[in-house]
Design goal:
Elements (H helix, E strand, L loop, with lengths): L23 E2 L14 H10 L2 E6 L10 E6 L2 E6 L4 E4 H9 L1 E8 L10 E8 L3 E5 L5 H10 L3
Antiparallel strand pairs: 1-4, 2-5, 2-8, 3-4, 6-7
Length: about 150
């Protein structure tokens, strides 16, 4: 019987480390054929959603959570590093703003049974973030409206 030296996989060489640029990943699968005129507002909204806005996503509270947040819009993914300012298109900020978690607290008066069972919903962002710079004067109003919408 051969005796083998134990191997600690975490301390072994895991390959060359490389630095990559964080940006949009993926592409558009094709083009949608538009067979009727689109309103001017549709073009304005498209331009608005593709404006660059500088944000900071808060670092994770749990050390096991990844340092990159992945968001996607129409098959195009964007990885957003946590804890550092980064400029991303507004459409990815909308995904962050809609990524909400809901926890419930319960109050129960056992004397009255189900009649006094009250559930209180408490909402929080899954990936809390701050807007550092938004060049559009309507950006703050838009973000406040998106954040206030129900899940």
């Amino acid at each position: 019987m051969a005796t083998r030296k134990p191997i600690d996989a975490g301390s072994e060489y895991l390959g060359a480390e490389e630095t990559r640029e964080v940006g949009e990943i993926g592409g558009h699968a094709g083009f949608d054929v538009v067979d009727k005129p689109l309103p001017k507002e549709a073009f304005e909204m498209e331009a608005f959603m593709n404006e660059m806005v500088t944000i900071v996503v808060n670092p994770p509270q749990d050390p096991d959570e990844p340092m990159l947040v992945q968001v996607g819009v129409n098959g195009v993914n964007q990885f957003i590093p946590r804890g550092e300012p980064i400029s991303v298109k507004r459409k990815y900020i909308e995904v962050l703003a809609r990524a909400k978690r809901t926890d419930f607290s319960q109050t129960l008066d056992e004397r009255l049974g189900e009649k006094m069972n009250h559930m209180r919903a408490m909402h929080s962002l899954r990936y809390p973030f701050s807007v550092i710079s938004d060049p559009n004067r309507n950006g703050g109003t838009w973000l406040t409206a998106v954040l206030s919408e129900a899940r």
